[in-house]
Amino acid sequence: MSDCLNFLDTAAADFEARFATLVDYDEAIDPQIDSTVAGILADVRARGDAALIEYTQRFDGLACSSASDLELSAERITGAAQSLTAAQTEALQHAAQRLRRYAEHQKLTDWSISESNGTELGQRVSALERVGLYVPGGKAAYPSSVLMNAIPAKVAGVAELVMVVPTPHGTVNDLVLAAALIAGVDRVFTIGGAQAVAALAYGTETVPAVDKIVGPGNAYVAAAKRQVFGKVGIDMLAGPSEILIVADGSSEPQWMAMDLFSQAEHDEDAQAILLCPDRDYLNRVADCVRSLLGEMPRREIIEASLARRGALIKVADLHEAIAIVNRIAPEHLELSVAEPRPLLELVKHAGAIFLGAYSAEALGDYCAGPNHVLPTAGTARFSSPLGVYDFQKRSSIIDCSAEGARELANTAAELARGEGLLAHARSAEFRGSDER
To answer: How many structural domains does the chain have?
Structure first.
């Protein structure tokens, strides 16, 4: 068995204790980070552009004399797109086309119902007016995250999409800018960290305030999003990446090993788990882990991730495997079995579900079509992937006829009086009376 993988067996006496340790992840809030972020938010809120410039100079090493220097021109963004290779451009456009097509099916629509007395009830759906998209910058380059966050916003009808991306010492990633152009981002600012979140939440003289902030970031960005929630909406507070694979032994073992690597290489806290009733198959996967690990540029990260939170788990059968799936509620679930559809019916909690040996999670990360912004750390029990609906809001429509108001008045008044709210009761009764 590979030294960096834990081996568990559901039949073992110590399984529950070891399993609880394996899946327990509680990202503690760092008081120092929270305090630092609170100070930055308050400062940007009070001083606007001046504070934004100072923090950008201090943290990103950018020489800028005014906040207008922090916005990239349309020419700069177009130039970035034109600098890509043909293969890069084709990949971005192909991914964007698939994401857009999938997102089109998610749009909520208006509806109404008519009652016999002439009253109409319904729902009106409208898009958020302005959304902020945070994109990590510097050495990190995540054009896929730009597409995944921006395209559903634009499909929803968001009028203005404002992207912020840190550019330490002026390092700008052309792939990220090209993705922004393809996805329809309207403005791009070279700012990052808590100060960028503050600018989006409160607005400055140059950066417009938005209605919602989406996109991944470091601990300071996550803390800032948490603190501004309520002033603006946020997408989610994401934890480390996760993959849970249910296998029946029919898939190539090296495919399974590489799928485990695909999440483990994100960071040391990522989780990669494989469940299978065949012990010999688990041993073969472990052998592949051992033989393939040396080829990985991020070997040390993968090893640390697998040692800390990864596992090969021997289960009694596939039904027991699904029971464990529902306990974990994973971000990514691969059902790498010969007949995945029957198992799919038993899955209650998962962010994204990949059916069959050919549905690699990595395809979903980039171009399959569904969004890769997914609930983590068990939150798939009550939340869903990012989608068009996250950029839409609903208004209830109530259009009472005179007859309808009379029919409702007594009910409303009775309930209002029961709550001690006389004005509510009288307001309803006025409409229910023939007297004017």
So the answer is: 3
Are 268 and 309 found together in one domain? yes
Q: Which structural domain, as residue segments, surrounds residue 405? A: 400-432
pLDDT of residue 5: 84
Q: Which residue from 336, 226, 181, 191 is spatially nearest to 273, judged by alpha carbons?
A: 336
Q: Of the candidates 209, 234, 259, which is a domain's last residue?
A: 234
Secondary element (H or E) of residue 96: helix 86-104
Angle at 74 between CA 71 and CA 77, to 5 degrees: 85
Bridge partners for 6 per DSSP: 311
Inside any domain, residue 376: no
Q: Annotated catalytic sites, by residue?
A: 331-332
Both structure tokens of 132 = 């902020």
DSSP 346-377: T----SEEEESTT--HHHHHHTSSS-S----T
Q: What is the dihedral of CA 298, 300, 306, 312, to 10 degrees?
A: 80
Mean pLDDT score, 63-85:
93
**CA 336 from centroid of its chain's CA atoms:** 24
Mean pLDDT of 23-50: 91
The residues facing 275 across adjacent strands are 246, 313
| Confidence band, pLDDT 50/70/90 cuts, at residue 66 | confident
Q: Helix 299-309 and helix 253-264: axis angle, to 10°?
A: 90
pLDDT tens per residue, range 233-246: 999 988 899 999 99
Q: In this structure, are 66 and 178 located in the same domain?
A: yes
List the CATH number of the domain containing 291: 3.40.50.1980
Largest CA distance in the chain: 87
189 and 50, same domain (yes or no): yes
Of all residues in the chain, what percent carry a pLDDT higher than 70? Answer: 97
**CA distance linking residue 190 with residue 305, whole number of Å:** 32
